[in-house]
């Protein structure tokens, strides 16, 4: 059985998986990540299968929706339905969710988008650029996917909240 446990600190396993799962341009430095976690702005859920830690979710609770910033499952446990179970639990708990995905230019990106689509997520058709985590890096072209958003929450509103609260732009 898959369980999500709120955590106020990250175990070494989570740091290792975070660095392994996300390229440097798709994540902030670990000290900055831990600072945001300590303030309560950024939230962490540890994913466990029984007693074994198998992944994590870093997310933000914004005014109109929850933003899943980083979600990773240990590569050795992928394909067993853990990711789907996690997202199903998040859908029930968070209701209105937004997340970023890479454009469908690689087989892995296409598979990831398909994973979210099978779970009922839709993609905003608008072009979206993630502000850089590091000063001097270029913005990163991504896609925004969402589930459960009311029609009055537009792409521009979502982008504005992300830029203001997550990326401090």
TrEMBL record:
Keywords: Transferase. Residues 2-147 form the N-acetyltransferase domain. It comes from Chitinophaga terrae. This is Acetyltransferase (GNAT) domain-containing protein. Signal peptide: none annotated. GO terms for molecular function: acyltransferase activity, transferring groups other than amino-acyl groups. Gene3D superfamilies: 3.40.630.30.
């Amino acid at each position: 059985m898959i369980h999500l446990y709120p955590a106020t600190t990250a175990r070494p396993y989570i740091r290792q998986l975070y660095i392994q799962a996300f390229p440097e341009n798709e994540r902030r430095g670990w000290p900055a990540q831990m600072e945001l976690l300590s303030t309560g702005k950024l939230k962490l859920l540890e994913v466990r299968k029984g007693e074994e830690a198998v992944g994590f979710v870093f997310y933000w609770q914004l005014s109109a929706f929850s933003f899943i910033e980083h979600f990773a499952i240990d590569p050795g446990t992928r394909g067993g339905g853990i990711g789907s179970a996690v997202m199903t639990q998040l859908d029930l708990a968070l209701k209105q969710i937004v997340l970023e995905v890479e454009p469908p230019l690689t087989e892995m990106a296409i598979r990831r988008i398909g994973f979210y689509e099978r779970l009922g997520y839709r993609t905003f058709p608008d072009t979206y650029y993630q502000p850089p985590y590091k000063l001097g890096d270029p913005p990163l072209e991504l896609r925004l996917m969402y589930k459960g958003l009311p029609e009055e929450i537009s792409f521009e509103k979502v982008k504005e909240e992300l830029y203001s609260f997550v990326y401090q732009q």
